[in-house]
Amino acid sequence: MKRFLRENSLGLVFGLLFLVVLVGQAFAGHADYNQQQLAAGMEPVPMGRYLTSASFAVDVAENWQSEYLQFFLYIFLTVWLVQKGSPESKELGSEGRGSDKEQKVGAFATDASPRWARLGGLRGTLFANSLGLVMGTLFLLSWLTQSIAGVAAFNEEQLRDLQEPVTWARYLTEPDFWNRTLQNWQSELLAVASMVILSIYLRQRGSPESKPVGSAHDATGVEG
């Protein structure tokens, strides 16, 4: 058990932190939602009902979709784009998908390589792009979830204000949908850009996301 915890500590800690923060969001969101209910002259709702509400679902989904968008773009763009001096970039001149030998696929696969890395055709292509494809799919699914939950939450407010509800297609053109979407996208893109640029000049000793402390500022693709 100790070995399992040590070898998987990064994933386990982030998973635990995710659950802690999600629970915190549920309690804070529930309190905020009931404040709005009381302000509108309506009865507060219990926690169980709030957790199954469109309001909670859209708040969660709009954050998930922006995170998966960030990783989807970063995974694909770093195949072709580089940043001089950043450990988050490949070395200058190594842009592109890499040779079969470098990627250890097909005839260059080793005994330890995943089985699909040895294959050509559709299965080999899918596996070679599986990380980006899954991230892109998760982004689209969470964005769809946000839109569906968002229109339900939006229509609750419309009815509360004695206004007509809108269809899902109409909601996709509403400022509410794009405000929720774009405010998350801009924050995630800023975070990625900050990581790429700041890691050129700043260090964190022992972190694989940083260059070694003594590396030159223009050293590219070097991780500590």
Protein described:
The chain is an all-alpha fold. It folds into 2 domains: 1-52; 54-224, no CATH class. The chain has helices at 2-7, 9-39, 47-51, 54-80, 100-103, 121-128, 130-160, 168-171, 175-201. The model has no long low-confidence stretch (mean pLDDT 91).
Shape: elongated
Distance between the termini: 28 Å
The topology string of helices and strands comes to HHHHHHHHH
**pLDDT < 50 stretches:** none
Could you say how many structural domains there are in total? 2
List key phrases describing it.
single chain; 224 residues; mainly alpha; 9 helices; 64% helix
Question: What's the quick description here?
Answer:
With about 220 residues, this protein is mainly alpha-helical. Helices cover about 65% and strands about 0% of the residues. It has helices spanning about 1-5, 10-40, 45-50, 55-80, 100-105, 120-130, 130-160, 170, 175-200.
Topology summary:
Blueprint: H1 2-7, H2 9-39, H3 47-51, H4 54-80, H5 100-103, H6 121-128, H7 130-160, H8 168-171, H9 175-201
